[in-house]
Amino acid sequence: MKKIGILGATGSIGLNTLDVIKNRPKDFRVIGLSAYNNVEAIAAQIVLFKPKIISLKDLEVIKRLEKLVDLSGIEVYTQDKGLLEIAVNDDIDLLVVATTGTASLKPVLEALKKGKTVALANKEPLVMAGEIIMRVEKESNGKIIPIDSEHNAIFQCLKNAETRDLKKIYLTGSGGPFRQLAKQELENVTVEMALKHPKWKMGKKISIDSATLMNKGLEFIEACWLFGLEPEQIDILVHPEAVIHSMVEFCDSAILAHMGITDMRLPIQYALDYPERKTNNFGSIDFLKIRQLTFYEPDTDKFPCLELAKYAACERGGKGCVLNAANEVAVSAFLQGAIQFTDIAEIVGKVLEKHTSVAHPALQEILVMDRWAREEADLFCYQQ
Known about the structure:
- By secondary structure, this protein is α/β, with parallel strands linked by helices.
- The protein has three domains: about 140 residues, Rossmann fold (3-Layer(aba) Sandwich), CATH 3.40.50; about 130 residues, no CATH class; about 70 residues, Rna Polymerase Sigma Factor, Chain: A (Orthogonal Bundle), CATH 1.10.1740.
- Helices cover about 45% and strands about 15% of the residues.
- Helix 6 runs parallel beside helix 10, helix 10 runs parallel beside helix 13 and helix 15 crosses helix 16.
- It is globular, with a radius of gyration of 20 Å.
- The model has no long low-confidence stretch (mean pLDDT about 95).
């Protein structure tokens, strides 16, 4: 039986993870759960899964939770301390990291140092500090298994293959909700429009990132670190049908493609069961209904966030951290109605331009860069 901790239990990935777990009580035991302030959701999870340790936003949220469920016998923590306590808990074998933002960086590092398997759903840790994280994984007994559908697809295609035999990988994406809009029409995009992804049901932040194609850019940076690739070894393809989740090309020109339905429970279950495979009832592709698979080159003139991410991947020196931080602030401002959709890329680009690279930055330097980039982006969003 695997013992599981979940950071971000009430978000989309967390809920899907628990959906996989709940039907297999002989295979999994939930030890730790973290949430932000959705007390109704985590209260129901506590009743069903009976965790030993939980973490929430603050004491006020804990007080609200205590009115809904008995917390006696459960270790209760708040904020960053709580995430770390779950990450290093000795009873946990596998840590699912599904929080948004930068809060998961330290928990990922500490879990790896403790030799745990980290099922990584959010992109921020590797985008911010990929060099450090991959070094820690190599030096410890820990292991990262990506949950993000594209990277999970590559991970599966590369299983038992030698990295030296790898020629190129292809990251696919649906192209987002505005693939067919003219560039000038993007100036009129509303929050409601941007949140309507054509294929996946996701949280607000990742939905906006998918609409700007920043999500694909972050995946580009993540793939460089996760699979030890140079930027020129990664191609991005717009694939509206979202049937092929990614492809791997080897030195002999053979290409393996990972195909599947658009259901996040598939990569989640793979990560939970790794290295085994187990049956499920999630459904399968009906090839007779697909009829065609199409691929297009992404329009980086219309979606400049993708080029900004590629620049950050090539430059390194903390550029990924700055890109990520500035984007988080800009997306939040857009969701609040403070800036336009097209302002997101412009603001991220301005912050990147002001940043001075630091070769092989240490963790503390990365955290300083993160704060600086957020402050700069905040000025562009709200005070100019």
